[in-house]
Amino acid sequence: MKTLKHTLIACCIAALPLATPIVAQAAAPMAKTQAPGYYRTMLGDYEVTALSDGTVNLPMDKLLKGLDKKAIDKALAYHYLSSPVETSVNGFLINTGSKLILIDTGAGVFFGPTLGKLVANLKAAGYQPDQVDEIYITHMHPDHVGGLVSNGQRVFPNAVVRAEQADADYWLSADNLAKASDDSKAFFQGAMASLKPYIDAGKFQPFNGNADLAPGIRAVITHGHTPGHCVYEVESKGQKMLVIGDLIHVGSVQFDRPKVAIDFDSDSKTAIAERLKEFDDIAKSGEIAAAAHLSFPGLGHMQKRGSGYEWIPLNYQSAP
Question: Is this structure's pTM higher than 0.85?
């Protein structure tokens, strides 16, 4: 007596068309592009969308400090990497239900054609620049503020830009620009060009120290990488995320060796101390970390491991 399984198999076979010869098709051209760079997850009632601004190749064997080149090369090789390292630049869009808030804006035109994709990815994610209500800047390096402007005009015409006062005082100072080394002048010029249209329009509102900026979103000072670097705590229904800016650049090296600094730090000693403090807190609390320069989407958890940390990327979700 045939089982139901045998009957179904027989029906499927009977439904197959007679075999036809396979005809070779012309080779399809390679697409050589990725999917749109956005990734969405929920944090309590808040929708969080990670936005890729693209990637940039950085010579980490020359930029990292406190570790010799051989050790850096070995750490990178363990993760199947070599210098220069293709490094992500990420921003994070938070929809609270009443406000649309963007944290960092990417590089715009300041670092060449491999970056400057954040706005296109924001649109691919279903939003428009004029819908953004507020923009929170972790610090004023060009790869975080460059996306604010295009051809000298505001990209986000309805947004108020917030940043810590100490960073504004430092990077927007004509005196500091005049005293800066030739290698550093572009950082000041990039910050000034990016913020000027918002300052002129009365849309720049710096804050002093730790500050509550919106319901469930708080700025926390983590000076060191820059004079006014800060991170942003986001909380909804008891779920927490910390947008950590440039507390880390090279996960393959700095998680195991968190006392390794990078040449971009204004004050390496303070930057290292802030990294250790915040990473300890993240590991203890179990909250999500959102990082500007870890591989896109830059979302994950941390666990303490020996004298360093382990990065555990957020599990992929097909729907938020």
Answer: yes
